[in-house]
Amino acid sequence: MGYILIADDDIAIAELIADSLTDEGYATRIVTDGTSALEAIKNETEKIDLILLDIMLPHKDGLQICMEVRARVECPIVFVSAKSSDQNRILGLDIGADDYITKPFVVAELVARVNAHVRREKRKQKQDEGIIILGDIVLDKENGIVKQKGEMIDLSTREFQVFSYLVDNMGKVLTREQIFENVWGNTFGDLNSVTIHIKNIRGKLDPDNKLIRTVWGIGYRLVKGESNCP
Q1: How distant, in Å, are the alpha carbons of 65, 69, 120, 179 from that of 96?
Q2: Whole-number Cα distances in Å, 94 to 42, 56, 68, 117
Q3: What is the rounded distance in angstroms from the CA atom of residue 16 to the CA atom of residue 6?
Q4: What is the CATH number of the domain that holds 78?
Q5: Is 126 helix (H, G, I), strand (E, B) or coil?
Q6: Last residue of some domain: 80, 111, 130?
Q7: Residue-wise pLDDT tens for the chain (230 aa)?
Q8: Are residues 84 and 32 in the same domain?
Q9: What CATH number is attached to the domain comprising 149?
Q10: Under 8 Å between Cβ of 30 and 11
Q11: Are residues 171 and 111 in the same domain?
């Protein structure tokens, strides 16, 4: 879990927000000028879950910061500003902010909006994690779907499980024993079942054997071959 960055030069307001979010279980960090905010965003992109950004910051204002970092950060950016005109609100949203809260604000509403943005981001991340793209192949693990060039590929349940396991271990050489144990769920059985299912998957997705490579005497390895790269 990351933290919420609060960029506001009014320390009393920043601490009020931080205390309220801490009560909700969030970790927070306060910065009081634009330079510190920009440095934190650039250096800790992966750690920040949401940014609460005042517009009127010393050294560099919030609008400049938003424009500079929007392309590199995926987390929500929410302006919290005393600039309450429609023009400022529209400008803030147009340059990439996800929300705009005017001062003075109701703390409970600010917390509710933060909760909503964080929930939305978590849903988005969960959806993204369930979809894997291998060039012209799209694997939707959550819904059990495989498409190639936009066309649905009819894999059996076991074929889908084998292919998903190969994708989860992309680049690794997997023995037939490993595949059988992890897909079939036991260590006793006919390992030829693995060979047959790999052959069937290749026939449907990889007739040129460029995606699923045979490592002779060991097993199989799934790669992103040049023909499969976006």
Answers
A1: 11, 9, 16, 45
A2: 21, 18, 14, 18
A3: 11
A4: 3.40.50.2300
A5: helix
A6: 130
A7: 689 999 999 999 999 999 999 999 999 999 999 999 999 999 998 899 999 999 999 999 999 999 999 888 889 999 999 999 999 999 999 999 999 999 999 999 999 999 999 988 877 766 556 788 888 898 988 888 999 988 999 999 999 999 999 998 988 999 999 999 999 987 677 888 999 999 999 999 988 888 999 999 899 999 864 333 33
A8: yes
A9: 1.10.10.10
A10: yes
A11: no
pTM reported for the whole predicted model: 0.59
Residues 55 and 142 in one domain: no
First to last CA, the chain: 31
Q: How far is CA 120 from the centre of its chain?
A: 12
Structure tokens at 174: 């997997």
Shared domain for 18 and 116, answered yes or no, is yes
Are 8 and 119 found together in one domain? yes
Identity of residue 70:
R
Helix, strand, or coil (residue 75): coil
Residue 220 sits in the same domain as residue 151: yes
| Furthest CA-CA distance within the chain | 71
Dihedral-angle region of residue 144 (phi above 0 means left; psi in -120 to 50 means alpha; beta otherwise): left
Q: What tokens does 215 get?
A: 């490592």
Q: What's the number of domains the chain is made of?
A: 2
Question: 169 lies in which domain range?
Answer: 135-228
For 22, which DSSP code? H
By residue count, the chain amounts to: 230
Last residue of a domain, one of 97, 130, 163: 130
